[in-house]
Amino acid sequence: MAEALSQSSKMRLGRLAIYACLVIVAVLYLMPLWVMVTTSLKPLDEIYGGSFIGLPKVVTLDAWRAAWSQACIGTECTGLKPYFVNSLLMVIPAVALSTGIGAINGYILTKWKFPGANFVFGLMLFGCFLPYQAILIPMARTLGLLGLAGSIPGLVAVHVSYGICFTTLFFRNYFVSLPDELTKAAMVDGAGFFRIFWSVILPTSIPIIVVSCIWQFTQIWNDFLFGVSFTSGSSSPITVALNNIVNVTTGRKQYNVDMAAAMIAAIPTLVVYIVAGRYFVRGLTAGAVKG
Amino acid sequence: MSASTRMSSRLAAWLPRLVVAPSLLVVIVAVYLFILWTGLISVTSSKFVPTYDFVGLEQYVRLWATPRWHTAVANLFIFSALFLALSTGLGLLMAILLDQNIRAEGALRAIYLYPMALSFIVTGTAWKWIMNPGLGIQRVVNDLGWTDFRFDWITNPDMAIYTVVVAGVWQSSGFAMAIFLAGLRGIDNSVIKAAQIEGATLPLIYRQIIIPMLRPAMLSVIVLLSYIAIKSFDLVLALTNGGPGTATELPSTFMFSATFRRNQMGVGAASAVMMLMTVAAIIIPYLYSELREKNDG
């Protein structure tokens, strides 16, 4: 194409402007992470000396050590370690159960449709958009009646109950696009309900299983409302413990410990995001039913 | 056909329903029954524990007579409007820019979206530190020589709600970007090519053709972000704890503190019902239209 030179240099200027915009926004988005990491590596005196945005002059892991095993949460000075373990004990069974149940629900609602199946799906779908404040009081009462109040199994039960709304949505929308011939052929061969699920459906659903696990892991690990409403003291998940550390008002505020604690709480979901970001995005956009 | 095979074939027909039944039961109880239960508590005089004496709409009257609730509702409007406008605008802009055959698109996209992987508690903690007037951004700019510069919104009751907006937009605009980008990728390129041949300029093409075609994505973004805005709780708690004073109270934090901190369970339940009705007014028409269009297609 024989374009005028000015035309092409104008194009190049436009491209440059686009890249400049994108890079500026990227820097702004990375800034909080940068500040968290660098602050967590600085000694407290350096922070109070006015070093905010710069690299640490002295790099120390003291704040990380304090956040992990010494910082006080309430009256217990155990650091985040036991609460990190609590969150793990909560998130692993909750993710496994909700994903498994969601998979079989999605399978039934698409391949074994019964009268009213769409209505059942609609009932579950609204559960995805439930403002949890509307169920906090009854749930607290029910957990008390079941003897699950303030316990990790109680939190697992809560997360599974509301999580299956999301996982059923994921699996249903995924299985809807699988051809029915797949299950029909297996049925002709004499395979039953569970056999088809195990041998025909599950092997094709690895991507959506990954999406569901990542979504549930992120949601449950990051949850604060259920944690703060239904647990107290040593059975709290990490988000509640982090909030307690940060809101300590006595003594000289340990900003480096706060930031190290925030990083410790953030690392599991950040790692998942970095390793499997593609699937993370798919979980996000699944909420937009049509994307 | 023998009796036993008839039995087993009938069982086979019922098996899917039996397997889905426990999930359905859990959802009916944990979502719908609990909503009714909350509604019930909201018409009683419950304080520290539920007491089931009918007092009519007394708690709703008391709720709407509470200045703190008025602050919370006003804040929700300010926060939602700005949060929605900024997240949607920024998300759309970033998606359009990223859609111009950008090198390193994957890396940039990852950077815009990573805040979405964080807990709002982490986000709140980080931004509380960044906006700390004594040691954060204000200090940095002061040290650069602009000594009059003030960025003390977080301690200023009139401005504190905007700090929640800033942190919320940082966390959620990447989400809007991801949905818009998916929408842009679904648009047929030949439409754009044809318009270009007709001599339309790129900004014109975007204004007149592409952005109108993003309507479904726009609807999704607005609905999902509204939902995030209404349920925002952890962000406020970590960032400002509702303060200074009650300056950043939202309905979600109001409900929590009335119920669990101030022993006003009836008022708390009433505020939860108001929140639920707001969400339902946005979500139910959305779900209805999404599902109906899907079934038609």
TrEMBL record, chain A:
Predominant location category: membrane
Biological processes annotated in GO: transmembrane transport
Gene3D superfamilies, A to Z: MetI-like (1.10.3720.10)
Record membrane topology: Multi-pass membrane protein
Keywords recorded for this protein, A-Z: Membrane, Transmembrane, Transmembrane helix, Transport
GO annotations of cellular component type: plasma membrane
Transmembrane segments: 16-37, 88-108, 120-140, 152-175, 196-218, 257-281
Pfam families: BPD_transp_1
Top-level division of the source organism's lineage: Bacteria
PANTHER family, A to Z: ABC TRANSPORTER PERMEASE PROTEIN, GLUCOSE IMPORT SYSTEM PERMEASE PROTEIN GLCU
The family this protein is said to belong to: Belongs to the binding-protein-dependent transport system permease family.
Protein name as it appears in the record: ABC transporter permease subunit
Lineage of the species this protein comes from: Bacteria, Pseudomonadati, Pseudomonadota, Alphaproteobacteria, Hyphomicrobiales
Automatic annotation (TrEMBL), chain B:
InterPro entries: ABC_transporter_permease, MetI-like, MetI-like_sf
Gene3D superfamilies registered for this protein in UniProt: MetI-like
Membrane spanning residue stretches: 12-37, 76-98, 110-130, 159-184, 205-230, 265-288
Places the protein is found: Cell membrane
Example GO BP: transmembrane transport
Keywords of the record: Cell membrane, Membrane, Transmembrane, Transmembrane helix, Transport
Gene Ontology CC terms, in alphabetical order: plasma membrane
Pfam family, one: BPD_transp_1
Top-level division of the source organism's lineage: Bacteria
Domain ABC transmembrane type-1: start-end pairs: 73-288
Membrane-topology descriptor: Multi-pass membrane protein
Stated family: Belongs to the binding-protein-dependent transport system permease family.
Name assigned to this protein: ABC transporter permease subunit
